[in-house]
Prior knowledge:
Largest sheet: 4 strands, antiparallel
Shape: rod-shaped
Structural class: alpha+beta
Amino acid sequence: MSPEGPEPELPPSLRMLKxxxxxxxxxxxxxxxVLIGAFVMRLNAGGPSLPDSVDLPEGATAAAFTxxxxxxxxxxxxxxxxxxxxxTGQLRQTxxxx
Length: 98
């Protein structure tokens, strides 16, 4: 056999395996592109509208933050939950954690 000669014919089972590996490669590349697209769309999406600043009561320091559909809450280091209106930024309710 010379190096320039035609390639020998693959058995049918190996031809099928070659097609399956090629198809899997194409599917994995497509899935990776979809995943990248989802990340790009998610990172470019606008976040919630919140006031530029929040007026905490005297001596309160924020420890955590959470939000709902029309409110957001600040948990303070002195064990209080301050619930604010999302649109106006005004304090709605104060809860003491016992």
